[in-house]
Amino acid sequence: MGESQTPALDASELGDDDSVDPAPAPEAPLSAEEQAALGGFDGLVRAPVWNVPVSPSVTETTVGRAYLEWKARFFKTCGDGSVYVLKNDYTGSEQVASEGIAYGMLLSVGMGDKDTFDGLWDYYKSHRNGNGVMNWLQSVCGGQIDGNGASDADLDAAMALVLADSRWGGFTDDARNLVDAIGTNETEQCGNGQIVLKPGDAWGGCGGTVNPSYFSPAYYRRFALIQTERADFWNQFAGDTYQMLNGMQDQVDGLLPDWGFGDGRAEGGDRGQYGYEAVRSPWRIALDLAWSGNADARGFLQRMSQTVDSKGGITAMADDESFEDKRNSAFLGSLSLSGVSVSQAKFDAYVSEWRAYEDLDDQWYYQATLRVLFLMTAGGYLPAEY
Length: 386
Description:
This protein is α+β, with helices and mostly antiparallel strands. It has one domain: Glycosyltransferase. It is 48% helix and 7% strand. The protein contains 15 helices and ten strands. It has helices at residues 11-14, 32-39, 60-74, 98-111, 114-126, 151-167, 172-185, 217-226, 231-251, 280-292, 295-310, 314-319, 329-336, 344-356, 365-378; strands at 75-77, 83-85, 87-88, 94-97, 137-139, 144-146, 187-189, 195-197, 209-210, 260-261. Strand 5 and strand 6 form a beta hairpin. The longest helix is centred in the middle third of the chain and has 21 residues, at 231-251.
């Protein structure tokens, strides 16, 4: 499994001169067993168009090993042969969420693991509702716990299908149908003309709740190329998204709230803080910057990086007592991705601090899954097309 030779952007092109400190531990070579497992996949592809730095410390070995560890822990099979991604957490609960199925689809298409991708897409399809989106919460190898779609999962699944069609072919209709279902059932145009993303197909929107960590402008730009008859809708949606994101960011000191309202307000209390929901937003916006070079994406992430620096950097934020339950890759990896908007040196410093943090706790599904997605992005191994 050879390393890609595609170079990162030169730091001199982007400015800034931060030093890299500390460094993650040296990486062991792949074992024979790991090489054999990875040899069964089509493999990672370094994005040919990638408008941000990549981390030289995040190699094919790094991502490949992280994927195998993730798969061994969370990719499961039922007695009937169906497969799923296990959602476990500190409460001891074990369930299957549509987000996990969709994350697994993104990871497996990025890794070139088609058998896993096909199995997860079959699971998604077999648990859809009348709107064509997956009912979001299921029992492990059992029945439905809660119905209706969750738009973050549906967006990730749709983007995974777009990538799968680009990589392998055969998913054109599936991708178009899911993109159409999302646009029809999980968006709303408000009285002022602004398009907002509902949290699902059955609730929220202009007059209700929104989740900014679900907002995926990078995907909307790709969907405009898939659903060409609605290209104007998807492109407007991407622009409108930044109006809401920037407004909410101003209310949370350069970060984002977990939840907000369709009129642009951040929620109050714990739901108005940068918590376990909001950590996905820098990743989604970093993809938009990487894929499109969008100026709004750059400005959003630069504002976030300023907040990180004002608090002393990644390590200092993690060491603060307020981060006691957040010392994991969901938070530190998320914040690290803001560095792609500044410079190669800044990004390298952030990623090194994240990966070298002593008390990193990624034992649970959510943190562990986001870790692999963030690593794949940090290394430039999640192209917009193949």
